[in-house]
Amino acid sequence: MSEKILVPVLGESITEATVSKWLKNVGDKVEADEPIVELETDKVNLEVPSPVSGVLTKISSQDGSTVEVGALLGVVAGKANSPIKEEIIKEEVKENSENNIVNLEIKKKEPEIFDEKLEDEKEEKPLVLTEEVEEKSEIKSSSENEQLSPAVRKIITENKIDIKKIKGTGKDGRILKGDLINLMGVNPPPAERKVKFGQEERIKMTRLRQTIAKRLKQAQENAALLTTFNEVDMSNIMDMRKENQEDFQDRYGIKLGFMSFFVKACVVALKNFPAVNAEIENDEIIYKNYYNISFAVGTDKGLVVPVLKNADELSFADIEKSIKEISEKAKDGKLTIEDLQGGTFTISNGGVYGSMLSTPILNLPQSGVLGMHNIVDRPIVINGEIKIRPIMFLALSYDHRIIDGKESVSFLKMIKENLEDPRRLFLDI
Fold first, then answer.
1. CATH code, domain with 339
2. Residue 116 lies in a domain
3. Which tens digits make up the pLDDT trace of 226-285?
4. Type and span of the H or E element at 70
5. Among this protein's residues, is 404 annotated catalytic?
């Protein structure tokens, strides 16, 4: 009995995928639920399992082809189709027996010991010759050094220059000081990538990269984008982490990071400013009374934005554990469609890459995104005195169609207040 391998339902608004690679070849044995082919969608890669145990008899959609939901990928012959299996087993037995005979014939010849000795003798000769050449070159170089002026010898010694690579312009090929100066002024060799790939290289965009480009362009075209900025003194958070890090890690088995503070601060602000947690659909505003925080994760294939579900119901430890788990899945390419759906607000941490300030772009259909940046010691005025404090710049990009300037500024100000006095987060004020 043969079973068809079909493209499964890929998730919300996803109608097609690209066949990334087949994990099995025609004729390979497969087990039920064993991954057999990998598909690349607009959002994530997923593995399609074999519906039954048996043998892969047909591949209908090759690597790189675009397939729609429900399309035929291949065919697996179930265990009931014994003729196919018997043929494969016979071929394997035949190959194995033939290989055994060949191996026996090879063993009978036994000329290897003599050949090894000859090879050893052949290898010894160039070693001796090399040593002789090196000795001669040393003698030559020493004689050349005697002909060099003190200024030239000094430059060669200080800059570790190989005089063999220098063509002297002096009498009888003598190396002059000008020759060394010209050598040090020579243009550097071309970049490694230029040598390897040429002047230009063309690589087809992955489906994920195409989707990222499309969605970012849609955000610019369809939303009234605006960004407001503020700064936050991270002193109290850093002190709290330092004082409680060891106890926190001993109890929960994970480090206390900055993201849990930011997630908590954003949830408090979202509850007070519901428009930032809303979206526009046609001529209606949908206010969402749940708080799913999307957070950007950089991977080898591009930026993905998994979702931390029901963040308002999670403790600091739960947030840190969930973020770590989801981030590892993203970097390993094991995110599911469910991991990427349902976000209501996004946090983007460009600070981990050294970003000082940026204007993050919306993750549609969301109406707001918070940009975190690096922490730098800066001079600020406190009570009339200049103090050095660890400062982070914050940026809130928002859809001005639904969020007014007053709401956006007040929202970011509330995040700042809760981060500068993290005790407020435990009081939900």
1. 3.30.559.10
2. no
3. 999 999 999 999 999 999 999 999 999 999 999 999 999 999 999 999 999 999 998 899
4. none
5. yes
Mean pLDDT across 323-342: 85
Q: Is residue 225 part of a domain?
A: yes
Question: Of 33, 239, 247, 400, which residue is the catalytic one?
Answer: 400
Q: Which of 42, 404, 421, 428 is catalytic?
A: 404
Residue that terminates a domain, selected from 55, 79, 103: 79
Q: Which of 38, 62, 79 is the last residue of a domain?
A: 79
Number of domains forming the structure of the chain: 2
Model-wide pTM > 0.85: no
Q: Is residue 338 part of a domain?
A: yes
Q: What is the domain range of residue 273?
A: 207-427
Secondary structure of the chain as H, E, C letters: CEEEEECCCCCCCCCEEEEEEECCCCCCEECCCCEEEEEECCCCEEEEECCCCEEEEEECCCCCCEEECCCEEEEEEECCCHHHHHHHHHHHHHHHHHHHHHHHHHHHHCCHHHHHHHHHHHHHHHHHHHHHHHHHHHHHHHHHHHHCCHHHHHHHHHHCCCHHHCCCCCHHHCCCHHHHHHHHCCCCCCCHHHHHHCCCCCCCCCHHHHHHHHHHHHHHHHCCEEEEEEEEECHHHHHHHHHHHHHHHHHHCCCCCCHHHHHHHHHHHHHHCHHHHEEEECCEEEECCCCCEEECEEECCEEECCEECCHHHCCHHHHHHHHHHHHHHHHCCCCCHHHHCCCCEEEEEHHHHCCCCCCCCCCCCCCEEEEECCEEEEEEEECCEEEEEEEEEEEEEEECCCCCHHHHHHHHHHHHHHHHCCHHHHHCC
227 part of a folded domain: yes
